Amino acid sequence: MECKVKKRYAAYFEKFKCIGGKCSDSCCVGWNIDIDKITFKRYFKVKDTEMRKMFQKNVQNNERCSSEDVDYGIVKLKKDKRCPFLDKKNYCIIHSKLGEDYLSNVCTCFPRVTNKVNDTYEMSLDVACPEAARLILLNEEGIRFVSKEEKLGKYIISAQVDTTLKEVKNTPLKYFKEVRDFCIEIIQNRQFKLSERLYVLGDFINKLDDGFENNSNEIVKFINEYDVKTTLKEYKDEDINSLLGNSNMNYIIQINFFMKMLKILKVDKEIESVSFKNYTETMLNGYNIQDDESISKNSHLYIKAFKEYEYILENKYDYIFENYLVNYIYNNMFPFNEVISLFDTYIMLLMRVSFIKFYLVGLYLNGEDNDNKKIAEFIQVFSKTIEHHKSFLMDSLAYIKRNELNNIEFAKML
């Protein structure tokens, strides 16, 4: 009998249900599909002769297996990167003929994300799934969390933190829960504009990164005494660009920066998503950038578009980005989710959000619709492309560090 465990999950989690063939962007197309060892062995013992032949033809051992519970075997995809077990209506043949119990751990779990913090299992959804994106992003009330004791079911641990270990005793990781909860609190503080909340988050992470490597016991005191209003006042007082009336140039800096990011991403050569390629083409048509000179020449048009779109987001759709940020912080164990400095994790989060807005402004310039559903649809496609790209995030971070852009001053410009 399966025992109950401590679970903490976003309130939207229980509402999720895979819609299968009705989905606008199948998770069974474009990605490698992993098979855990137990499921792999079962596939070759099924009594259904036709299904057993399909498994023999389309499932093989994974020579680069990293965990028997995840990728002991792999599915041989078709030339169009389509899973051979999808029928013509995009429904899973394994599920329809053998039942859900015969799905691999990966196929059962996605887009569910399970992390473990001490003895608590944390559940959320990946925004790369269209149905999950709708639940996560379009809730105007924001994301809330629920704690219960329940049975766990089939799962894959994506990340794990144990703050009771001796190895983390004198490190900021000891206070992982306090730090992450405060990050979420900052982002959900609707007394302030989202851009202000993002700056405060960066200031908090920057000070945390600089001052507590060898003095982690002071972190809780630092959190309790951190004053958001004072931080914002100092930010506004010290913002030289605003004082000089040159803050508009930040938009042009963003355009130049993200045009370089597009070169790193290599959309034409390395991206397989037709949807993302179409978005990119439409966005570039909107900006109509021929060369560096055209950016300068059309700067007044870009500045106007950025300001107009920021006004739309600020007054109608800030909650979408708030939810995106909170979900990312929660299911990626932010700011301890990468083997880099805490501030670098912040810069990479900010880069994601600003890159999304860069695309949306380009689509806006091209006359595309910009309602909440359209924004959520783009964020889903963006996330599926970027988060699962083999090298873009590390390559872009390398570019940022090489050009010494991983600092609070650059963060103000994004």
UniProtKB/TrEMBL annotation:
Domain of life: Bacteria
Protein name: FliB family protein
Origin organism lineage: Bacteria, Bacillati, Bacillota, Clostridia, Eubacteriales
